[in-house]
What does this fold into?
Amino acid sequence: EVQLVESGGGMVQPGGSLRLSCAASGFTFSTVGMKWVRQAPGKGPEWVSGINGGGGHPYYAEFVKGRFTISRDNAKNTLYLQMNSLKPEDTALYYCARGIYGRGFDQPRGQGTQVTVSS
It folds into this structure.
């Protein structure tokens, strides 16, 4: 059974940093591209970043380039998202999912982790 457990969210001031984690199980993690998708209140899901199975090829949405870094530790079956220079518009529920691109969620969807950027 596929399971994705996101963590690391919180409330920070603008300009702050957070590191999100996604613990994966139930599939061969190292062979699967992974992504982060976010959803703000009242808005549709938004693709944030993706990475290939080996971890050598990260991809970013324009609005996070230079601020966010995606990475993975295949030995720990864990996906990460380092978020720096956070802005209020980054406030959202963040989910990890299988796949590199696209704003679709995984099935089953994890619980997500809430990121709130506010002064």
Q: What stands out?
A: The two ends are 40 Å apart (CA to CA). DSSP finds no helices and ten strands in the chain. The mean pLDDT is 96. Residues 33 and 87 are 27 Å apart (CA to CA).
